[in-house]
Task: inverse folding
């Protein structure tokens, strides 16, 4: 008797569990990485974090694919579309061309792309595509303020990965932040020519230290790991990380990291879709939208005064009282002369 | 060991191998081999390269383990764990390649691995020297104890190897092709030593494929062929031709029959050739040579005196830093190989596997190594395989190259057939000058016979032949004139009638015999 | 005679087939260990490669460049050369085709298309000739130089696509799209997502061409003679340096053609790359498993095409980490290469230049 009762209860529970999906549609969301791939402890991993949040918090079914070559972008995006996924994300501006083609082939699938935008007319022709852009210049501005408040030698370095408009945004914002504090500070700039060459990153950092730099900021992906190594070994330079919180790479010498919340971008874009609020076009995420910002670990090595100063600037930017250059104008970038 | 030793008297069997069988993947190296050695004798193990001599001795020495069969030493089954153990039990081996440490002295090499020590760890050099002196006087092997190995002659190095074995108490000595590296004089000295050793009660297994030496030194001869024992005979009751027949399995003509040469006009001339070896050291220091039509000029010398470089310089494979080479009066100095053979030189190289053949090519492909881009083998850039194969088939049968077909890889032919294949290719190209280096090295008697006949018939048809060989017998039986090369110079040139082994031997060692002063 | 050959062909297949089998079993174990249902994984591999027309098409698209780079490496091996520079030659092939393909010269297809292809081939050939010449003239091992050339190609392409050849119309680092007159024919329409195109026909033709070149011409005869035994080749009057340069040139042209076909049939424009694409390295695997035979390269390239396309679909459809396939591939390569080293058709010492006997003497008199 008791046993039959247990059985009935179990059956009922099972039915209930199975029934839930029939009440609300299960969304299928996928992301396709560019040739960078997972494991960079930065940009791509952050996107993956967003996808995991989508699965956990929004209950969607998620999948991802890493691309081996640029020729893979199209088939990978298309495969998910073909398999009936509701939204497919392309992580990184390298995938723009593939998104453009595949979104036209699969008009019923929604596509999102990080770090690439088109003009309004384009979105009219591609009403199933949304872009997420970040105002890295705003976040970098705060890093510039922190650097300028910390330096004693009045020499500060910037390491870039490769020369792209995206990286120029970091550079120009950083420069503006430094100059907002002290115009007399000397800025050094060097591009490694690669996003995955820690040895080059280290060599550049060491040469900057020799030129008296005592704070260095990098926007160079895996190359920047070399900068942290240089800090750990020479023990006389402050370093600033990028994209995600890189504090762990040098707990003694990391001032801060410019956080780029790719996860937030993926999450917000997907949530909009599920909430029925998908809109073709560009979503810009700056300080105001919590798309970029200072790492939480900043307080560990950075003087409270410097953080306060940065926060003050942040509120001005959020309030729209201060605009930060985006680097498309060469004069806004660091002079090499 | 000495208590058993006393029980064996001279003439009694000290070592016996019974029913030894050893197979390697794809080949049976020894098949049911019986071999015995009496105390106080020199027993020669005679056979072609690859007949199974070395395998048998390596089993005896503990380097290989036999699949079947037993070894008895002094009447007891011999069980050894590797060479060191074999030596401990009284069997020593002198390898073709010496196992000596060159920068160390003779005395130091003697005690290596068995060093007398002072204070438990320092090598007692005085004692080592004393031990050496003692053993060298006992056996009458004079040697300079403080000389470094790298400073002494090859013959002396071999003596050190023998002393090493004796020093460890060897009763039985295995000498693996000991004369291969020696000059005729050194060979004579070695034979004196060997006789002395057996006189003192040692027993020697002498491995060789040279009939003349075997006849001279051994008491008994056992012939091995294709891994089987063909027979065992007393040396005094046999003849070289009988031994040769046993080795090959058929009648062999050991002596090259040839008519006196009828030399024509000069075909080839080399003047003042100077060249370096691969390491950039002087190899040729001014060589003068000439070869006439219808004669064989033999160049003899101990290995490493510039023969290799001489041949390479003549055939365009090595650059001359000075000198002049002419063929039919035409200057071919420092021309690339292609131009040399277009001028009429054919070359049978000393290393048939390295230079003569592309082992991974088929026989047919090898037959067109110089002529692949000539008619009729190609048209434009297209190879004409039917022409190539029919040509290959033709010369294969003409030169009796034993191969399943022309599509067989050259590397799978036996050494003798590889050499015949090279001869077939080279001699089919209507040569003016035939340059042959070590044409019979490592070949069996049958192949040697063929190649020698062929070279003589080429001479008789009016070709000029330049023969370079380390085998003095070969030089003496084939040549019409002989030039001796020593340290990159021609010590002298003489007609075959004036040449004796003694004179040549002395000249090969660098000394000019009194009778030949001024021959040049 | 004929029957004998048939038998030997089957014998040739034993090791590669066994290797693939072992690789699959090992991959299954790995999947199980990482918590993936191996059967689901392999289902994803098969379905992902053949389950839909699009997927079959992608498998062929994947195979095509592997045929070219496999041929390039195999031809190098035949001459005793290790053209590890295929990677860079592929990249300059991409650039060469992208630049010429985008030029509006008013040319008709039958001129513009072969011209574009030739441009990619020429770039690859020239790129490969540099290490070829350095080896022939100075005896510098080609591996070192071609690796350096790879980096030069990578960074040069990056510079070009962010500057001189960048499409000014867009912000992303792409070159301009090639004209329709330079595009290969896609079997299912030029804008179809089914991307299979006449590139595969060109690849098969290239394999036949290389077969003919190697085994039916005097050029191939010389290349193989030098590859098997440079000393004997020199003795036979065959110029070793000339053939080293020639083999590198042809090898580079094939790798460049891989890039050209990729641009003309798939990408239509050069997309910036930060890292090597792997076609050059995969070409080594293809050549090894294909036993350096041009016709063996075809099935071998298909195998790796399937494995690599499959590594993506397995990740997409079954959540299998793509490294699993990487490990399987490694196992297959090791087994096949081991056979080659033992049997001698892969003269690894000669190719890597660790053969003391051959080194240094190869280059002597020109």
Result:
């Amino acid at each position: 008797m008791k046993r039959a009762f247990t059985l009935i209860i179990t059956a009922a529970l099972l039915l209930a569990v199975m029934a839930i999906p029939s009440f609300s549609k299960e969304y299928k969301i996928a992301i396709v990485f560019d040739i960078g791939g997972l494991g960079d402890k930065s940009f791509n991993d952050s996107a993956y974090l967003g996808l995991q949040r989508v699965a956990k918090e929004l209950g969607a079914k998620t999948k991802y694919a890493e691309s081996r070559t640029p020729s893979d972008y199209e088939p990978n995006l298309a495969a998910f579309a073909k398999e009936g996924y509701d939204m497919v994300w392309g992580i990184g501006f390298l995938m723009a061309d593939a998104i453009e083609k595949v979104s036209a082939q699969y008009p019923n699938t929604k596509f999102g792309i990080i770090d690439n935008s088109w003009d309004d007319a384009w979105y009219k022709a591609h009403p199933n595509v949304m872009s997420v852009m970040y105002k890295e210049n705003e976040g970098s501005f705060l890093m510039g303020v922190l650097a300028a408040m910390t330096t004693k030698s009045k020499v500060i370095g910037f390491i870039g990965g490769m020369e792209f408009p995206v990286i120029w945004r970091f550079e120009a914002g950083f420069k503006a932040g430094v100059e907002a504090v002290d115009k007399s500070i000397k800025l050094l700039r060097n591009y490694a020519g690669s996003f995955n060459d820690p040895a080059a990153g280290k060599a550049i950092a060491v040469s900057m230290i020799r030129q008296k730099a005592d704070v260095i900021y990098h926007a160079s992906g895996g190359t920047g790991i070399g900068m942290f190594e240089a800090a750990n070994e020479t023990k006389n330079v402050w370093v600033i990380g990028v994209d995600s919180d890189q504090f762990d790479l040098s707990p003694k010498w990391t001032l801060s990291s410019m956080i780029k919340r790719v996860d937030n971008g993926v999450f917000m874009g997907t949530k909009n879709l599920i909430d029925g609020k998908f809109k073709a076009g560009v979503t810009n995420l700056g300080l105001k939208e919590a798309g970029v910002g200072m790492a939480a670990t900043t307080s560990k090595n950075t003087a409270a005064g410097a953080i306060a100063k940065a926060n003050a600037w942040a509120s001005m930017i959020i309030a729209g009282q201060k605009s930060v250059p985006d680097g498309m104008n060469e004069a806004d970038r660091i002079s090499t002369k | 060991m000495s208590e058993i030793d006393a029980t064996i008297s001279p003439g009694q069997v000290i070592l016996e191998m019974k029913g030894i069988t050893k197979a390697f993947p794809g080949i049976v190296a020894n098949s049911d081999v019986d071999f015995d050695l009496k105390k106080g004798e020199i027993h020669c193990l005679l056979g072609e390269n690859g007949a199974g001599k070395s395998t048998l001795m390596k089993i005896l020495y503990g380097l290989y383990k036999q699949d079947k069969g037993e070894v008895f030493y002094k009447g007891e089954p011999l069980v050894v764990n590797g060479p060191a153990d074999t030596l401990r039990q009284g069997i020593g081996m002198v390898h073709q390649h010496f196992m000596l440490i060159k920068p160390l002295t003779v005395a130091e090499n003697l005690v290596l691995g068995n060093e007398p020590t002072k204070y438990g760890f320092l090598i007692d050099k005085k004692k080592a020297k004393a031990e050496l002196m003692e053993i060298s006087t006992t056996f009458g092997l004079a040697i300079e104890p403080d000389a470094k190995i790298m400073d002494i002659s090859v013959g002396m190095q071999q003596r050190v190897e023998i002393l090493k074995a004796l020093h460890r108490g060897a009763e039985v000595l295995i000498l693996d092709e000991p004369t291969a590296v020696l000059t005729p004089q050194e060979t004579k000295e070695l034979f004196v030593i060997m006789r002395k050793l057996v006189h003192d009660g040692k027993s020697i297994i002498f491995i060789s494929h040279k009939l003349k030496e075997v006849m001279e030194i051994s008491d008994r001869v056992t012939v091995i062929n294709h891994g089987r024992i063909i027979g065992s005979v007393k040396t005094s009751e046999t003849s070289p031709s009988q031994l040769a027949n046993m080795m090959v399995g058929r009648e062999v003509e050991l002596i090259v029959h040839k008519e006196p040469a009828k030399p024509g006009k000069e075909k080839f001339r080399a003047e003042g050739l100077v060249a370096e070896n691969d390491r950039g050291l002087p190899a040729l220091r001014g060589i003068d040579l000439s070869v006439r039509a219808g004669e064989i000029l033999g160049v003899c010398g101990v290995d490493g005196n510039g023969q290799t470089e001489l041949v390479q310089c003549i055939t365009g494979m090595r650059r001359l830093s000075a000198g002049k080479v002419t063929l039919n009066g035409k200057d071919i100095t420092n021309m690339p190989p292609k131009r040399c053979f277009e001028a009429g030189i054919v070359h049978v190289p000393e290393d048939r596997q390295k230079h003569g053949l592309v082992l991974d090519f088929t026989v047919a492909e090898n037959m067109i190594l110089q002529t692949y881009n000539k008619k009729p083998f190609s048209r434009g850039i297209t190879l004409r395989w039917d022409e190539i194969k029919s040509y290959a088939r033709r010369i294969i049968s003409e030169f009796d190259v034993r191969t399943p077909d022309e599509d067989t890889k050259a590397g799978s032919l036996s050494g003798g057939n590889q050499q015949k294949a090279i001869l077939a290719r080279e001699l089919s190209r209507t040569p003016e000058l035939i340059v042959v280096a070590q044409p019979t090295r490592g070949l069996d008697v049958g192949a040697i016979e063929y190649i020698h006949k062929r070279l003589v018939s080429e001479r008789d048809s009016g070709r000029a032949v330049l023969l370079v060989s380390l085998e003095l017998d070969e030089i003496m039986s084939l040549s019409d004139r002989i030039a001796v090369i020593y340290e990159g110079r021609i010590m002298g040139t003489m007609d075959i009638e004036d040449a004796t082994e003694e004179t040549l031997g002395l000249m090969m060692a660098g000394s000019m015999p009194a009778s030949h002063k001024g021959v040049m | 005679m004929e029957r004998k050959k048939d038998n030997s062909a089957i014998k040739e297949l034993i090791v590669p087939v066994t290797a693939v089998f072992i690789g699959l079993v090992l991959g299954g174990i790995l999947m199980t260990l990482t918590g993936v249902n191996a059967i689901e994984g392999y289902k994803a591999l098969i379905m992902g490669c053949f389950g839909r027309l699009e997927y079959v098409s992608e498998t062929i698209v994947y195979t095509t460049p592997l045929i070219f780079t496999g041929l390039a490496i195999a031809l190098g091996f035949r001459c005793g050369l290790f053209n590890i520079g295929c990677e860079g030659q592929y990249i300059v092939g991409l650039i060469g085709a992208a630049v010429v393909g985008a030029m509006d010269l008013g040319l008709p297809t039958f001129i513009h298309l072969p011209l574009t292809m030739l441009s990619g081939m020429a770039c690859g050939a020239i790129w490969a000739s540099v290490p070829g010449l350095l080896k022939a003239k100075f005896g510098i091992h080609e591996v070192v130089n071609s690796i350096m050339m790879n980096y030069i190609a990578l960074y040069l392409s990056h510079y070009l696509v962010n500057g001189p050849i960048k499409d000014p119309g867009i912000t992303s680092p792409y070159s301009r799209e090639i004209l329709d007159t330079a595009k290969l024919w896609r079997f299912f329409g030029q804008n179809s997502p089914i991307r299979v195109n006449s590139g595969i026909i060109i690849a098969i033709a290239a394999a036949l061409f290389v077969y003919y070149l190697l085994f039916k011409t005097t050029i191939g005869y010389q290349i193989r003679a030098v590859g098997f035994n440079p000393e004997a080749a020199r003795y036979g009057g065959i110029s070793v340096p000339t053939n080293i340069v020639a083999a590198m040139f042809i090898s580079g042209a094939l790798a460049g053609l891989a890039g050209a076909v990729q641009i003309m049939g798939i990408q239509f424009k050069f997309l910036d790359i930060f890292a090597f694409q792997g076609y050059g390295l995969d070409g080594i695997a293809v050549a090894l498993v294909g036993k350096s035979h041009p016709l063996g390269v075809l099935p071998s390239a298909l195998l790796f095409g399937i494995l690599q396309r499959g590594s993506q679909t397995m990740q997409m459809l079954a959540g299998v980490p793509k490294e699993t396939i990487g490990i399987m591939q490694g196992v297959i390569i090791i087994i096949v290469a081991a056979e080659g080293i033992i049997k001698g058709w892969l003269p690894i010492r000669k190719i890597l230049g660790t053969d003391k006997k051959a080194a240094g003497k190869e280059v002597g008199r020109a």
About this structure: Chain A has two domains: 26-134, 136-259+292-332. Residues 16-23 of chain A have pLDDT under 50 and may be disordered. DSSP finds eleven helices and twelve strands in chain A.
